[in-house]
Every structure is written in structure tokens, then in C-alpha cells.
Amino acid sequence: MTSLLPWIALLLPLASMFVILLATRSLRTLSAFISVAAVLGSFVCSCLIFFQQTSAAAAICWIDLAPLFSVPLGLTLDPLSRSMLFMVTGVGAVIHIYSLGYMSADAGKSRYFAGLSLFMFAMLGIVLANNFVMMFIFWELVGVSSYLLIGHWFERPAAAEAAKKAFITNRIGDFGFMLGILMVWTGTGSLVFTEIAAGMAKLTAHPSYLTAAALLVFCGAVGKSAQFPLHVWLPDAMEGPTPVSALIHAATMVAAGVYMLVRVGFLIDASSGALHVIAWIGTITAVLAALMATQQNDIKRILAYSTLSQLGYMVMAVGLASGQAAMFHLFTHAAFKALLFLGAGSIIYMLHHEQDIWRMGGLAKRLPITFLTFLVGTLALIGFPGFSGFFSKDAILALAYERSLPIFAFAAFTALLTAFYMTRLVVVAFFGDARSPHAARGAESPIVMTLPLILLSVPAAIGGFGFFARNFLSLPNETKPVVAVPVIALLALLIGVVSALLLYRNRTTEPVEIELFRNRFYFDELYTALIKSTQGLLAAIAAFIDRWILDGAIVRGLSGGTWGSGFLLRLLQVGNLQAYGFLFGLGIIGLIYFTVFH
Amino acid sequence: MSYLELLRLAAPEAIVVLTAFVVLTIGLVTGRREAGDTPAATAGLGALVAALGLAIAAATIVRLPGHATLFHGMLVVSPLNSLFQVIVLVLAFFTVILARGERLLPNKGEYLAMILLATVGLMLLIGSEELLMIFIGLELTGLSLYVMTAFDKASQTSAEAGLKYFLFGSMASAFTLFGLSLIYGFTGTTSLAAIGPRLAEQALPPLLFVGIVMTLIGFLFKIAAAPFHLWAPDAYQGAPVSTAGFIASGSKVASFIVLGKILLIGFGPVSGSADWHGLIAGWTPILAVLSALSILIGNLVALVQKNVRRLLAYSAVAHGGYTLLGLIAGGRAGFSATLFYTTIYAVTLVGAFGVVGFVRRENGGDDLADFAGLRARSPLLAGCMAIFLLSLAGLPPLAGFFGKFYLFSTALRAGANHGLLWLVALALFGSLISLYYYLIVLKVIFLDENAQATPAVARYDFEMRADYLPKMTLLVLAGAVLLLGIIPGTLVARILASFG
Amino acid sequence: MSPFFFWTASALMLVFGAAVIINRNPVASALSLVVSFLGLAALFMSLDAFFLGIIQVLVYAGAVMVLFLFIIMLLDLRAEERRRINFVAFAGGAAVAVIFFGQLYLVIGHLHQAKLPFAPLAPMQVDDVHRIGLLLFGSYNLPFQIIGVLILVATIGVIVLSKRELH
Fold first, then answer.
1. Nearest residue to A123 via CA among A182, A192, A42
2. Which residue has the higher pLDDT, A559 or B214?
3. What is the mean pLDDT of chain A?
4. Which CATH architecture best describes the domain C1-79?
5. Range of the domain at B418
6. C100·A585 Cβ contact <8 A
7. Residue B406 in domain
8. How far is A565 from chain B (nearest CA, A)?
9. Which range (A151-155, A272-276, C161-165) has the least confidence?
10. B177: contact with A, CB 8 A cutoff
11. How many CB pairs under 8 A join B and C?
């Protein structure tokens, strides 16, 4: 029975999706409850697995073409996946419940909950997969479900566009990921993580090959965890419903990249070159995203950039060869970022989809529960001493201090910026006077939405303490505590908070305008221009070919469609046939040249 | 050998030919209306008989002895050949059903007979391991497909496509025949099994390589590998939809299997190597260059297509390029990967063209604009098309994903020191690009509004007409694509086992 | 076979083959094709394949081509109008053809068999009509029958495609 538990946890959401799609599509409320029941069921299974420390899971062979090719269908249950399973189902359950309130009036509720169920299935698949192929399949499924959920309101062009962008950007990363998987497999002859770990000697014999493979695998994480330079999709993904942003684009899916890197830590840690690149990509993402966050006005976008920045921290920790620090931050981040997003959702819901913080103001009094829990989340995010983020961020900072001072400097600067933009957000949105009619009339959200906030604020507050966190994951062991690190971190925090307070207290408009940050370093413009010019060039070439070779004058040259005697002869005069023949002959000549004379 | 023996072993082909006669006769006997349209009864009865004949032929194949060889390989019965003959018969079966709704065709009986005779050609291509017979099979298939392509006499593009296909097909055949005669001149035999050893025991003059290149051209033409692909966009766009589907599926499967057999059995000793660090002359580098070229040209040109059939044609060029990877890798693994990929590709394309056929009947066209808002009009067709296109893009858990994964992994593991890494990386890059244009089609289907306020032709109503059979076929095909993605092992194991 | 005979027959065949395409008058084209077939028949005979050569003359040069001529005359096809030659296309086509033949020439030039004189043919044991009959009904029986199917396809195709539809 225990060996079936992980399978049940995995398959319940899938079953829920099928039931919703096939049977209860028209019964919207029932669909929602089925989905919630499924995720609660998964959560219960995860708890059982977690507390019984189950480690065996039934495995079957999915594709068995030995000795050419075989892929097992197995689940992995080790401390890492058990705690991740617990976290994903826990946060998932909370957000499902919250969605009951947030999406209560949505016409596409069944579709939404079917999408959420599909996502839970895929995400649990990533967590539990014991080999690269399964992980890749679920990896793609997560992408598909994310696509569907971002584009939930597909009648809005921005949402449809954002969904497409997220999907394609992710595929660019996956292109590398797939190549990396193939390289690892060719090198070691196995796809199963434990077997690859055992056969690492075959890879370490070719250091450059190993580095290439590790970096290509990392490409997958760059896409999924939205690291520079593929970070552009995450802020746009905020077009989806807010619970989706909380679940997928803050707490779980985007963290999957980090989880994957930790899962294959043995591969990445074996190549110092790859580690170096990964650490710096994480650092660049952290700093850039934090800079961009300081100038955003949309509450969800600020949180999105902060997510990017925090993911940068995690990747940085992976690059500094400490998977434990990365996972620690992943956990605390999941709690407080989900909390922040749900808080933002609560505000947006009560303000009739107003997302501009400059049109809020004075919400502290009107939405007290939302405010208090949001404050907890903020304190955790900026690393206020005693809150969860403080501990996990401190662990990463200490690590950076120990391994690489330049990275440490950037990390500390990012901490300062984090404190700055979050203080700005809180001050502008919750204090001062109400700056729009909706903000003046807002009232607290229903209990089904505030309860999840309260639930999440507990781990967000105390999740960092050793006595709490140790139950869930192995904490990074600090070898020699350095006093300098917390001191610098606190200093950064203080500077950030105080400067933001001074700058934004009692303001009604943005006092500083930095176009470069506001426009996100023009990455989107750059990419758009690139795609446009490429497509334009291709279209021009294709038009040229069409005009001169393919679509020749036949349609234009023939007036009557009869099969008269002159038909063939007239056809034969047409230039494009000659051009075809010419290219055909050229091809043959080229091939003979290549084979015989080359 | 006796004639009885010949009749017994060639029974499946004979049955299909006889069925073609029966279908022709039905067409003649029941006559035609004044309007030029085939009476519904004729069309229905013809299709029924054709489908029945194909099914009986498939059943006969199953009952053939396991191994038999006639006339030095002119007719070879082996598990591999039987498996793929059945697959081709199944593809023809689906084509016959999907052709049921084909508007236009006044000579339905002849059209069905042509499908059957083309199928005979494909079966012979698959079932023979002798150069002369392969050439005749190639011609039989080609000739039937040329006629089928030009069959829509109300349409100029159909005639144009047929003529182009015919002219270039003949040109390619001429080169192939020249190549075959050179091969015969050097080895003194036309049996594939005997050519290999003869080639292995002599020094290889450059003229032999010229012969090999020319032999390959006819097959590269059939699989539409660049630069011999120029006919494909026109033929896919201009031909009757079911013909286009059959060209893209059955003809391709048979071409790949016979190409594989010629290369691996016949030309095995002159394979050469396409490793980037150790190029050795032979057919492998030729295929590698063509594969790379096809992937690049197919995917890039597909990006800017406005017509769905043309888009599928260019994507077919690219998929031909991927499929060649398996042959380049060689060996059992490589060949099985190629065969698996081409099979699932064929199933997918028959389905995709089925959807195109429905839309064409509704809107009278198959440009992207004609697909706008299909989701609202027929969720079933839109859903099926999504499955087909996403499988082509290689998205898990659909069949296309596993096909590509298997293909690329065998290619990567084939060469010494990952010599084919360059080609695999290129192929992966190509499939990345391909996702973009498939998504464009899906976006049009699912998100765009139908702009045509007043349809040019009388609207074909999806829900009113009882086209259950073709629709069920599409569902079955979509289910097959999904199932082959979830449990691909069964088919691959079957292919591997059939190698013996 | 004497080289002189071979070269004469080949040249005849090639020159008149080209003339089929170049001629704008359908009757002239058809007659050129007849001469080209005669050249081919001569080549067959020089290889001691007398039956094939005779059949080539009787069936192709005789029956088929006469039928062609009849049809051309019945339909009263006029000479195709003289059109401007597209020099770019002409140059392109010519370049491809020249390069191709150049390649073949180089490749065959390196072949040592190409420098040997024609080997004398083995004396015939049986008359070739008999042999061809045996082959067609013996080991080449299957392709022989399949070619029947091929001709059927061609027949149906021609009828369907050339027939006028009632509108």
C-alpha cells in the first residue's frame, strides 16, 4: 500500500482533470470542488509519505528495448522529493481553496480548475520523476498547463500573447535541456538519476563534454526558472489569474528549474566551469530583476520581478555548489511569495481588477487581514531578522561570502534593492490616502480567500527557524559563522527600507523616473526587433522565391481552365518549371561534386 | 518455383488489384448523373468494396508464411515487409474513408481504383529486395499518384500540381534508372542481398559513387528531401486533399523502408561516415548534408506560409530531414528509429489532411484564414488538429515526442565520439522553430474569430451532416497518435523483432 | 561491335533526340523521334539483341509513332509560335547540362575499364526470341505482370484526365 501512495498522489489530479473535462464541464461549482478534493487527497498522501518516511515506490518499465533503449517509469522518494512533494501539494491545496473564492464568478471555471489539476499532475511528476525522460515529459506538460492558465482569459490579446511568449521562451530553454539529456545519456548510457550518478566517472573523463552537457541541462532551468536572458516571459505571465501567478509563477513551477538543478547536483557539481557560469547567471538575474522591480507600478509585476530576483538567488546558490541553501530558500520563498501573491490577489479582487499601486493607497485600514499578512510576507521577503527569508537569504549570502566576494557584493546590493522596492510597494499601496474610487470603497475579501492568507503566513513567518525547517529539509550547515555577513545584510536592509520610506512617504506620483529600469533594460524591445527582423527577412526571401521560382506564371498565364490541346504546351513555357529543373539539376551536380570530387 | 507458389505469395497484391477491378466496374455499371457528380450509391459502394478489399489483403498478409523469397528477391516475404505492408494497407484504408467526402471528384470509381493501384505499387516497393522490381514499384506508385494529383479537373492548381509532379518524378526516375544500371554494371546483379558482398570485395571507383548518388535521387525525390522537394508544396496544395494525405503518408513510409533496405543491405559496405571530425566518402555524408539542408529549408520556409497545405508540405520536407537521421546512424537501432518515426508521421499527416479536407469542404479553401475560429464551429476537428500538430512539433506525451527522442538519441549514440552531435543539434533547433509555425496555426484555430461574414460557397455544416465515419476516423487517428506516444514501446519492439 | 558503328548510332540518337525538343513543328518533332528510335534499335542490334532491335523498329518507330503522327494531323496542331528565348534560363540549363557531362566525363575517364576495347560477346546458344520468352514467363514473370498493372494505370489515367467533363 505504501508503495502505491506516491502514485495515488500523482494520479489523483490527473483523474480530476479527466472527470472535469469529460463529465462535469457544465457543472462549474462541482468541477471546482472535484479539483480541490483531488489536490487535498494528494496532500494527504504526501503527508503520509512524509511522516512515514516512505522510500519505496513501485516502478515499472515503460519502454523496454534493451539493450538499445529503455526508459523506466519510476518514482523517486528521497528526502529531497518528499519535502518538495509536501511543499507543492501544501501550497497547491491552499491556492486551490483560494481559487474557489477568486474565480467564483468566472465563466470558464471548469476549464480553469481542469488546468490547475493538470498543472498539479505535471508538477508532481517533475518532483517524483526518477529519470530524465519522465522529468522532461512532465517538464513540457507543466509548460502546456502554464500556457493554458496564462491564457485563461484568452479573449484578452495580452493574455494570449503572454501565453505564447511563455511557451516559446520555455521551449528555447528546453531545446538545450533536451540536447543536454541526450548528451548525458550518450555519455553514461543511462537516463536514471541514480545510475547516472554512479556512472559519473565516464563523464568526468571528458571535462569539456561534461561542462557542455551540464550547461545544456542548465538551459532547461534558465527557461523554466526564468533566468537571464530568458527571463522575459515571467513578468508577462502575470496576465493570468492571480492564484495561477501565485501557484505556478511564484511558488512551484518556476522553482522546478532550481529543483531540477539540485536533483542533478552531482552532474553540475562535477564541472567547475559550469558552476561558475550558473552562479553568475543567477547573480545577473538577481540584480537586473531587482533593478527593474524598483520602477514598476503594477503590483503583480513588482512581485513578478521580485520572484525573478529571488530565483536568481537560488540559482546563485546552486552555482556556489550548495543545493541545500538553494532548496532552503526555495521553501521559504514558496511560502512567502505565495502569500504575497494571494495578498495582491485579494487587493485586486476587492478593487475590481485594479493593479496599479498608484491608484491604491490607504488599504491598511480597509483590508486589515490582507494588510497584516502581506506585511508578514514582505518582512520575510526582505529578510527581516526573525522571519523566514532572513535565514535562507543569510545562508546564501554566507555561502557567497565564503566562495566569491564579487558575487557576495552583488547579492548584498540585491538585498538592499529588495528592501527598497518592497517598502515602496507597501508604503504606496497600503498607506496614504485612497487615490481611486475603488480603493476608497474596498472592503475585506471573503473568508475563503483570507483563510489561505493566514495559513500561509505561519510558515512565512517562522519557516526559517531551524526547529521548524529542519523537519522538512536538510539545512545547509554553516561551517564557520561569519559576523560580517548578517551585519552587512542588516545594513543593506536598513538602507533600503529607510531610503524607500523617505522617498515614497505621502507621495501620490512617482518621484523618480528611471526609464531604463522601467522599460526593463529594453530586453523585450530587443527580442521583438530580433524576431521581427528575422521573420521579415524570411518573408522577403520566401516572397522572392515564390515570385521567381515557385508560384510562377501558371495561375496568371492561363485564362481558361480547359484541358485543350494547347494546355500542356502552354504550361511548358512557364518559367518556374525551368527554374525547378535548374535547381534539380544543380542539386544533382552538387551531390556528385560533394561525393566524388570533394 | 511454381506459378501457384507465386500466386500464393503475391496473393495480397493480387487481391488489391482485383478489388481495383471491382471498384472500376461498379463505377462503370452504375453510371453517372448529368451534373457530372458521382452518384452517392456508387461512391458509397465503391468505398465499401475498396475498404473491404484492403482489409482482406491485410488479413492475407498475416496468414503468409514467415519467410520466403522468390526470384532472387523480387518478392520477399519477411516479418518486416509484412508489417509495413499492413501499415501501408491501413493508411490506404484511412485514405479511402477520408476520400468519401471529397467534393469535386466526378469519377469516384476511378479515383478509388487509383488509390488501390498506388497501394499495390507501395506493397511491391516494400516487398521486394531486387533493383528491377523496386524500380517498377516506384514507377507504378509514381504513375498512380501523378494521376491522382491531377484528378480534380475543376481546379487548375490540381492540373498544375499533377504536371509538375509528373515531370520531376520522371526526371528523378530517369536518374535512378541510370544509377541502377551503373550499379548493375559494376556488380553484375540486381539482387540487393548479392550487391553488398560484391561491393565489399572490390576497389570502389568514383563512377560507382556516381551510380549510388543517382540511385538515391529517385527516393530522395519521393521523400521530398531538399533540394529535390520543389514539387512537394505544389502537389500538397493542388492535389485532392486525400491524395495529398496519401502522398505524405503511404508513399513516404514505403520510400523510407525501401531506401533503408537499399542503403543498409545493398550499399552497406560503402556507407562512409558523416562525423564532423572524420568525414569518409560514402552515402552517409550525402544523406547528412541533405538532411541538414531539408531541416533548414523546410522549417524556415514553413515559417512564412499562409496556406496550411503548403505549410504541411514544407514541414514534411523538414520531417524528411529528421527521418534521414536514423538511416545516417545506421544499424538496427537507426533503421528502427527511422521506420517508427515515418510511421507515426504518416498516421499524423493522414489525420491532419483529414481535418484540412473538412475545412476545405466547409470554406472552399485551405488558407490559414479558412481555419479561423474552427474551435467554435467544430471542437472535435479543432481538438484533433491540435493533437496532430503538437505531435508534429514533438510535444510530449504525443507520439512525435518519443519518435524524435528515439531518433535523435540513436543518432547521437551511433557515431564514434558523438560525431553526429552537429546534426542532432541542428535537428533539435529545427523542431524548436517548427513549434512556432504550428502554434500559429493553432492560434488561428483557437483564438481568431472567423472573419468571413459571407462565405464564398454554400457553408458546409459540421454538425448537421452525418459524416460519422470520417469523423470517427479522425478520432481514431488522434487516439493512435496519443497512444503511440504513451506506449511507443510496443510498435518499436515489433519493428525491432521483425528485423529477425 | 565496331566503335564506328556505336558512335554513329549514338550520335544519330542524341542529335535527333535533341531535335524532338528543339523543333517547334509537332510533325517534325515526331519524325525526329522516329529517327532517334532507329538509332536506339541499331544499338540494340550491335549488341546482338536482334529481337529487341526489331521490336523497337516495328512497335515504336513503326506503330506507335505512326499513331502519334495520325493524331497530330487529325488534331491539326499548328507549329508552336516562336517565342523569345529566355537567355538566362537557357544559359542556366546549358550550364547544368555541360557541368553534368563534364563530371561524368572526368569520372569515366578515370575508370580503367573505359580504356579497354569492347569485349567480344559470347556466341548465342539459343535464339533470343526464345530466351526472352523464357525469361518473361520464368524468372521475370512477376515484373512482367506488374508492368501490365502499370499500363492499366496509365490507360485509366489518360482516359480520366483527357476526357471532357459534362458541365
1. A42
2. B214
3. 82
4. Up-down Bundle (1.20)
5. 273-500
6. yes
7. yes
8. 14
9. C161-165
10. no
11. 79
